[in-house]
């Protein structure tokens, strides 16, 4: 997660302060309790996957970039949730969900787990909440303002506030993906196999954005050896960040875990076996698109997964790992750059899928979990306890407000940067509170703006073991590469067989190593429970490895406090976008660029109106935009639609007289030079409900002059 530009930061902070002052009056979020039946043996292991679109309506701030982000006018690519369900012959089950969001809060996971458990019970399947792992890919161009901890609703987006409607929409849609995966598994008992393959990202695809902090690790040589990256040319490109390339050993490129592991679900079809779904495990920030782009987008990881799905007719989900200090080697961060990274990422996944395979047992699944509660003084997990492991006073540090390398904020130049330290206190080591001034050491503004009550109340940790051949450790944070390697070392696990799944079941910012923590860079300052947080999460995973799996029981009701709703006069949604824009590509001039870097302002488009009374959370699933080409027989055929990557769909005016104006831009002339000029058109198709067929409503010929 990145933070804010200074523009609007003071106003945002003031609004947040007022919001926190009203915290006691903010509505709570309640998830009802439910019963988990005991597991029962079956005649055949089960597995299946399902994908459900989760694109919200325009008018929500994008989540993850803080005030530097935008308010989405529409979508460039639709967002998806993918659910993967597994059950062994003893009745032990697990559901893994990958969501194209910047984070997954505890309240959302709890809602999805409750829905999934009830759906599973209808088929006699026991699915305890510990066995439901809901993780974010970490795109920063999904929506914000749906988290359970109010600190992220106030500071994680460009506008503060919690949207109950958005939370309920996401819970319903992700829950539907889980329900569909469970139902498909129960309805299809045909034999299947699980296959694990291991590859790697291309060398130079990703880089470490905190190489100087990495060098603070006393075991840096051992970590580099574990990563297995060879010595390499450390000459920067023209667009690469200026600092850190001349460090000995090239931690810029070598301090990166490039491992990609692919788990395939293959179903037997006669004498052949067909791939039905893949789960991709890796570690990288999918944050290539500029923060200012006012559109929802799954970024390069999501685009790569969607390309695989559309090409092969399967479900493909990505699960992110210890990516806290790893980003793609980005260029201009425009549309073309994102698509280029998507192509390179897919090539690495495809290469991994061609590597040697290892069979993963389908008959020995084990899941266990615990919730660490920092405010108790001692954390407990799997029957074990640890004193003084975490601070009981969560806190952001000074460098958090300055942003990470490549995403610096204006506050960075005002002193909100690395190595701003204080006398150790609150169990936070040398961290100085984000708003605590060394000139006024007795004035602790950080606690005023972000008190402990606004942070997550627990850190869920989960252990999933597929018969010893694939092991997953789910944590709610973004670990740095070094911390991820240390966890793997503590567990005695090797690359490929063990994977961390970060950003899972809750969002609690970063976890650096205790060595990196002393430098107080962006990631260390964002390690909110003190210098031992990463080590404690590793301890919890080690404890869970030998813990008993979850049992049948009554799951209690949960109550969370996500903070107040938006202080704006209008709720988030299309009306929040205000008055009409003159052109559909307004505000997109930084990402719709020609090869020479100038804005492309004459892309083909189609415009239409929709009744304002239509439910905006359903409307997106009632329309489809198609790019059509004329066939030799004179008929028109669809060559792409807005489920792909060549269209940008936006609201033109949020406040009309009983209607909302829309437009869709076709990126064909921007992305390719061989498209058929004069032989294409854009068409709007609509349907009455999500179950009915689409009907063509209107079409517009593509008009584009070659000299433009």
Q: Outline of this structure?
A:
The chain is α+β, with helices and mostly antiparallel strands.
Please tell me what the overall shape is: globular
As a whole number of angstroms, the C-alpha radius of gyration is 24 Å
**End-to-end separation:** 38 Å
Tally of DSSP β-strands: 32
Average pLDDT taken over every residue: 90
Class inferred from helices and paired strands: alpha+beta
SSE arrangement:
Blueprint: H1 9-21, E1 29-31, E2 34-36, E3 46-53, E4 74-75, E5 80-87, E6 93-99, H2 106-121, E7 132-136, H3 150-155, H4 164-187, E8 192-200, E9 206-208, H5 211-214, H6 220-227, H7 251-254, E10 259-269, E11 272-282, E12 295-296, H8 299-312, E13 315-320, E14 326-328, H9 335-353, E15 357-360, E16 365-372, E17 378-381, E18 384-387, H10 398-402, H11 445-449, E19 459-466, E20 470-474, E21 478-479, H12 481-491, E22 498-501, E23 510-511, H13 514-517, H14 522-525, H15 533-545, E24 553-555, E25 558-560, E26 605-611, H16 616-619, E27 623-630, E28 636-641, E29 647-653, E30 659-666, H17 668-671, E31 680-686, E32 695-701
Helix pairs in contact: 2-4, 8-9, 12-15
Report on this model:
The chain is an alpha+beta fold. 22% of the residues lie in helices and 25% in strands. It has 17 helices and 32 strands. The longest helix is centred in the N-terminal third of the chain and has 24 residues, at 164-187. The protein is globular and about 70 Å long. Residues 3-24 have low confidence and may be disordered.
Overview features:
single chain; 708 residues; alpha+beta; five-stranded mixed β-sheet; 17 helices; 32 strands; 22% helix; disordered N terminus
């Amino acid at each position: 997660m990145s933070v804010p530009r200074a523009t609007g930061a003071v106003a945002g902070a003031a609004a947040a302060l007022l919001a926190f002052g009203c915290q006691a009056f903010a509505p709570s979020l309640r998830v009802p309790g439910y019963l988990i039946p005991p597991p029962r043996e079956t005649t055949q292991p089960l597995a299946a996957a399902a994908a459900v679109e989760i694109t919200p309506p325009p008018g929500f701030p994008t989540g993850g970039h803080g005030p530097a982000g935008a308010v989405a006018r529409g979508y460039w690519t639709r967002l998806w949730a993918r659910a993967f369900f597994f059950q062994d012959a003893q009745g032990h089950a697990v559901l893994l969900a990958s969501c194209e969001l910047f984070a997954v809060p505890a309240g959302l996971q709890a809602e999805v787990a409750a829905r999934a458990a009830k759906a599973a019970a209808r088929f006699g399947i026991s699915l305890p909440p510990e066995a439901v792992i809901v993780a974010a890919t970490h795109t920063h161009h999904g929506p914000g303002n749906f988290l359970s901890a109010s600190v992220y609703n106030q500071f994680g987006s460009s506008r503060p506030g919690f949207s109950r409607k958005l939370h309920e929409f996401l819970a319903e849609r992700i829950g539907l993906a889980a329900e569909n995966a469970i139902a498909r598994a129960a309805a299809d008992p045909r034999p299947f196999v699980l296959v694990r393959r291991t590859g790697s990202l291309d060398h130079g695809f990703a880089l470490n954005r905190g190489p100087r902090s990495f060098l603070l690790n006393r075991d840096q040589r051992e970590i580099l050896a574990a990563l297995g990256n060879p010595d390499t040319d450390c000459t920067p490109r023209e667009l690469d960040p200026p600092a850190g390339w001349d460090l000995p050993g090239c931690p810029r490129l070598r301090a990166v875990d490039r491992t990609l592991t692919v788990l395939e679900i293959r179903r037997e079809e006669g004498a052949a076996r067909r791939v039905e779904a893949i789960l991709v495990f890796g570690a990288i920030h999918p944050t290539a698109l500029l923060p200012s782009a006012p559109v929802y987008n799954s970024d390069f990881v999501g685009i790569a997964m969607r390309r695989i799905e559309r090409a092969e007719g399967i479900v493909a989900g990505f699960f992110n790992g210890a990516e806290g200090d790893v980003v793609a080697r980005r260029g201009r961060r425009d549309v073309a750059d994102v698509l280029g990274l998507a192509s390179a990422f897919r090539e690495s996944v495809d290469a991994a899928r061609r590597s040697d395979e290892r069979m993963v047992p389908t008959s020995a699944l084990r899941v266990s979990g615990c919730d660490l509660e920092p405010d108790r003084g001692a954390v407990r997990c799997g029957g074990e306890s640890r004193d003084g492991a975490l601070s009981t006073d969560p806190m952001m540090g000074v460098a958090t407000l300055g942003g990470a390398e490549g995403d610096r904020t204006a506050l960075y130049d005002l002193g909100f940067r690395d190595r701003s330290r204080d006398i150790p206190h609150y169990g936070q080591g040398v961290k100085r509170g984000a708003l605590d001034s060394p000139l006024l050491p007795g004035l602790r503004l950080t606690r005023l703006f972000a008190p402990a009550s606004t942070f997550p109340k627990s850190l869920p940790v989960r252990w999933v073991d597929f018969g010893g051949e694939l092991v997953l450790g789910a944590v709610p944070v973004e670990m740095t590469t070094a911390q991820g390697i240390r966890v793997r070392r503590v567990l005695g696990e090797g690359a490929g067989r063990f994977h961390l799944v970060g950003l899972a079941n809750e969002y609690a910012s970063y976890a650096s190593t205790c060595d990196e923590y002393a430098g107080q860079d962006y990631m260390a300052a964002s390690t909110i429970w003190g210098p031992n947080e990463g080590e404690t999460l590793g301890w919890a995973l080690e404890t869970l490895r030998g813990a008993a799996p979850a049992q049948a029981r009554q799951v209690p009701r949960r109550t969370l406090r996500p903070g107040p709703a938006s202080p704006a006069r209008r709720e988030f949604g299309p009306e929040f976008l205000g008055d009409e824009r003159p052109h559909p590509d307004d505000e997109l001039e930084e990402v719709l660029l020609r090869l020479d870097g100038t804005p492309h302002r004459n892309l083909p488009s189609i415009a239409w109106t929709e009744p304002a009374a239509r439910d905006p959370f359903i409307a997106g699933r009632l329309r489809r935009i198609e790019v059509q080409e004329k066939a030799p027989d004179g008929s028109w055929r669809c060559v792409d639609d807005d489920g792909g990557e060549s269209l940008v769909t936006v609201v033109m005016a949020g406040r009309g007289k009983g209607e909302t104006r829309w437009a869709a831009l076709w990126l064909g002339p921007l992305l390719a030079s061989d498209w058929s000029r004069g032989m294409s058109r854009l068409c709007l198709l609509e349907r009455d409900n999500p179950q009915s067929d689409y009907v063509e409503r209107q079409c517009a010929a593509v008009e584009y002059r070659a000299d433009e």
